[in-house]
Amino acid sequence: MSKLLAFGALWWLFGNPFVAVLVLLVIFYFLERRYIGLSPSIVRPLKRRSAISRWRRHIQMSPHDVSAKSELARLLIERKSYAEARGILSGIETQMDHSAEYWSDIGTCDLALGRLIEGEREMEQALAISPRVKYGQPYLRLAESFAKTEPEKAIGCLQRFKDVNSSSCEAYYRLGTIYDGLGRADDAKLAFRECTQLYRTLPRYMKRHERKWAIRSMLRNRK
């Protein structure tokens, strides 16, 4: 009823039903982004594209700036341009081989490119340097990569991730999906339930980031 009233008010305001629908969709989008967060961001890709262009120009002027190349590679990984990011990272290995974040980034690229042996070795190198690098993200990337081919290994990675980052709803959700794929329905339901229970205990500032995993878990648990 409230939606119909809002539509009617917008139609009256703009004098065009199509404009009213468009404005209503925009309002719903921003409300969903603010309070739920399942839909993709429209603004983030634009900001990332601008930042990539800026770092490329900077590197053209300062070709030996290792920090700039690391940042550019990180943005390219975020854009899923893994081959290009790996090319940049491979050129700075000598200067960055001591960095856990470097090995995590290049491992992410190799795993995404299907180079599982190399990617796993690089992630283990990152974790050997710093077991808590990127709050345990290497464990998640390894779990994603092995979820279909070696689910037991993926489960082990997620268990290790939970030891490092006990506040992650994503780990429980992904654990539940792997159990579900293995036909272990009871274990899957337990993981999804633990995800929603964890979400309820999180402080408000963390709920915004973890909300989508809690919602997905609730939806999976109702099937």
Terminus-to-terminus distance: 28 Å
State the helix count. 13
Biggest β-sheet strands, sense, barrel: none
Proportion of strand residues: under 5%
- How do the SSEs run, as a string of H and E? HHHHHHHHHHHHH
Mean pLDDT comes to 87
Fraction in helix: over 70%
| Alpha carbon gyration radius | 21 Å
Q: What class, by secondary structure content? A: mainly alpha
Give the low-confidence spans: none
| Morphology call | globular
Fold and architecture overview:
- Helix 9 (137-146) packs antiparallel against helix 10.
- The chain has 223 residues and is mostly helical.
- It is 79% helix and 0% strand.
- The relative contact order is 0.06.
- The radius of gyration is 21 Å and the shape is globular.
- The mean pLDDT is 87.
- It contains 13 helices and no strands.
Descriptors for this entry?
79% helix, globular, 223 residues, 13 helices, mainly alpha
Q: Helices, strands, pairings?
A:
Layout lengths: L1 H13 L2 H19 L7 H19 L4 H13 L3 H9 L2 H4 L3 H13 L3 H14 L7 H10 L4 H14 L4 H13 L3 H17 L2 H18 L2
Helix pairs in contact: 1-2, 3-4, 4-5, 4-7, 5-7, 7-8, 7-9, 8-9, 9-10, 10-11, 11-12, 11-13, 12-13
